[in-house]
Design a protein that fits this description.
495 residues, 2 domains, 10-stranded mixed sheet, two-stranded antiparallel ribbon
Length: 495
C-alpha cells in the first residue's frame, strides 16, 4: 500500500512538474468582463475583452500569438461611426502597459499627482480616459506582455520575421486586419497611437495598412516619438537638437541664469529653439574648422541655455551628449537627473563621470507599473496565466536597416486626404526630446502642402507626460479633440 501511495505521489509530482515546464498561453482565446467608469463626470459602462490572436505564416500556420486588451463602450447605437484607437508602446521590446495603465485606458495607476509610486500598488478609475470618445485596443507585439513567438517543428521561429522595423510593421499590419475583421470594425474611423519607438512603428503602419491591407486611417498619433533617421546620423543636427530640452530641464531644476530662470518655461523655449536652428547647427557642422572667437561665443551661449559651464562645453567641442547632461547638470547638488523624465533625481556612486549609473525615472516607473499590470489583468480582467508578463521582452538584435517610415507617413498622407497627425511630447524628456519630435514633424512633408494636417502639443513633464495628473487631463483632451476634429462626418476624401 505504501508503495502505491509513493508511486501515486511521484506521478502527481511529475505531472505538475511537466505542466509547469510547459506553461504557455492558448494561441487563440478571449475572456470578456463588464465594467464601468466615470469620465469627465459622466458614468460610462464598457466591455473589456482580453485575449490572444495568432500571427500566421505564408502557409497559414501560427508562428506567434499576440496578447491584446480591447475596450468597447456599451449602449452604442451606431458602432460603425464610433472611432477605434489602436495603441502601441515602443522599446522596441516594450509591452503595451504604459499607455494602457496610465494614459488613455479606463484604469490608471495609483500614483501621486506628479507620477511617483505609492503603496499599496494597484489601479483606480481614470477620469480623463478617451473611452467616452473612442473604443481602444492595446496590442503587445511579439515577446512583449503575454505575446510570444511559437517555435516551428524542430527549430525556433525565424528572428527576421518579427524583430526589425520593416518586419514589425509587416506582421502587425496583417494582424490588425484580422482583428478589425473579427470585431466588425471595418467601417469605423481608425486611429493608431504609438509611444517612443511606437512613433516609428505607427509611421510605418500608416502606409503598410493602406498599401498592403487596404485599410485607410483617419489619424496617426505619435507620443514622444523616436526617429531613427536622426539618431542614426550622429551629425550636427542630432547633437544640436537637444539644446532646447537642456533649457527645459535646467529651468525645472532652477539651474539657469537669472535672466532665463525668472521667465516662464514657454517664454524661453522659443529662444533656445531659434538659437539651435540659426546658430548651433551651423556651428557644430564646422567641426574643428570653426574659428576660436565663434567657438567661444557659441560655448558661452550653450552654457547660458543649458546650465552647464562654458569650460565643460569647450572641453566637449560644443557637442554635449545627453548622457553627460544627465550626469553633470546637478553634480554640485549630488544628484543625477532622469533620462526619460528629467524631473526625477538619482544618486550615483561617485559625482564625476560621463553618464549616470542608472535611469532614475525608469526604476521608479517599474516600481509601480509591474505589480499594477499583473494585478489588473489577472484579478480585474480575469486573464489567469502562469506566463510572465514581459515589461520588456527579448527582441534583440533589432534590425534598423532600410528605415523609410518617415517617408511612408508622407506618402500615406498624400494618398489619403483624411489622414491627420498629432504629435505629443514632454518638455523634460531627454531620450526622445520634444524638439526632435518637432523636427521629425517638419521633415515628413518637405513640400509643406500638408502642414495644416499636423498638430504638435507639448507638456510640462517627460516621456510619459501623462503620469503628471495635470498633463493626463490635458493630453487626453488633446486626443479627444483631435479625434472629433478628424472624424469626417460625411465629408468627401478629396483635395
Amino acid at each position: 500500500m505504501k508503495q502505491l501511495v509513493l508511486l501515486f505521489t511521484i506521478l502527481i509530482f511529475s505531472f505538475n512538474y511537466i505542466a509547469a515546464q510547459g506553461r504557455k498561453l492558448p494561441i487563440d482565446t478571449a475572456i470578456t468582463t463588464q465594467h464601468s467608469v466615470t469620465i469627465n463626470g459622466k458614468p460610462i459602462s464598457y466591455t473589456a475583452k482580453i485575449g490572444t490572436q495568432p500571427v500566421w505564416d505564408e502557409m497559414g500556420k501560427p508562428i506567434a500569438s499576440l496578447h491584446y486588451t480591447y475596450y468597447t463602450r456599451n449602449n452604442v447605437k451606431d458602432r460603425a461611426s464610433r472611432p477605434l484607437l489602436i495603441s502601441f508602446n515602443g522599446g522596441p521590446g516594450s509591452g503595451s502597459v504604459w499607455m494602457h495603465l496610465a494614459y488613455t485606458g479606463p484604469r490608471v495607476l495609483k500614483i501621486d499627482d506628479e507620477g511617483y509610486p505609492v503603496q499599496p500598488y494597484g489601479v483606480k478609475e481614470n477620469p480623463y480616459s478617451v473611452l467616452d470618445a473612442t473604443d481602444i485596443v492595446y496590442v503587445n507585439p511579439a515577446n512583449t506582455g503575454y505575446s510570444r513567438t511559437i517555435p516551428e517543428t524542430g527549430k525556433e521561429v525565424e528572428h527576421e520575421k518579427f524583430f526589425g522595423i520593416n518586419a514589425d510593421v509587416k506582421y502587425l499590419a496583417e494582424w490588425l486586419t484580422t482583428f478589425v475583421t473579427r470585431n466588425n470594425r471595418w467601417r469605423s474611423p481608425k486611429y493608431i497611437i504609438g509611444e517612443s519607438y511606437g512613433g516609428t512603428r505607427v509611421m510605418g503602419l500608416s502606409l503598410a495598412l493602406q498599401e498592403n491591407q487596404w485599410m485607410y486611417l483617419n489619424g496617426v498619433i505619435m507620443v514622444s516619438p523616436a526617429d531613427y533617421k536622426v539618431y542614426s546620423t550622429g551629425g550636427a543636427v542630432d547633437m544640436a537638437l537637444s539644446l532646447p530640452y537642456y533649457t527645459a530641464a535646467a529651468w525645472h531644476h532652477k539651474a539657469l541664469p537669472t535672466a532665463l530662470q525668472s521667465k516662464d518655461l514657454l517664454d524661453i523655449l522659443p529662444e533656445a529653439e531659434t538659437y539651435t536652428i540659426k546658430t548651433l547647427i551651423p556651428a557644430i557642422a564646422k567641426g574643428g574648422f570653426i574659428n576660436e572667437a565663434e567657438k567661444n561665443a557659441v560655448a558661452e551661449k550653450i552654457a547660458y541655455y543649458s546650465g552647464l559651464s562654458k569650460q565643460e562645453i569647450l572641453n566637449l567641442n560644443l557637442r554635449v551628449p545627453t548622457q553627460y547632461f544627465w550626469k553633470n547638470l546637478l553634480k554640485d547638488r549630488g544628484y543625477t537627473i532622469g533620462r526619460l523624465d528629467s524631473r526625477y533625481l538619482g544618486i550615483d556612486k561617485q559625482l564625476f563621470g560621463e553618464k549616470p549609473d542608472y535611469n532614475a525615472e525608469l526604476k521608479s516607473w517599474l516600481h509601480s507599473f509591474t505589480p499594477a499590470i499583473n494585478y489588473y489583468l489577472q484579478e480585474e480582467l480575469k486573464f489567469k496565466t502562469d506566463v510572465k508578463y514581459n515589461m520588456f521582452g527579448p527582441v534583440d538584435p533589432w534590425n534598423k536597416e532600410d528605415d523609410n517610415t518617415r517617408d511612408n507617413l508622407r506618402l500615406a498622407m498624400a494618398q489619403n486626404p483624411y489622414l491627420n497627425v498629432l504629435v505629443q511630447s514632454g518638455y523634460y524628456d531627454g531620450a526622445t526630446t520634444y524638439f526632435n519630435a518637432k523636427y521629425t514633424m517638419w521633415q515628413v512633408d518637405p513640400s509643406g502642402k500638408m502642414k495644416d494636417r499636423f498638430d504638435f502639443k507639448g507638456y510640462r513633464s517627460g516621456h510619459m507626460m501623462y503620469l503628471r495628473r495635470e498633463d493626463l487631463k490635458n493630453a487626453n483632451n488633446d486626443i479627444r479633440d483631435f479625434i472629433k476634429r478628424t472624424t469626417t462626418n460625411g465629408k468627401s476624401a478629396k483635395y
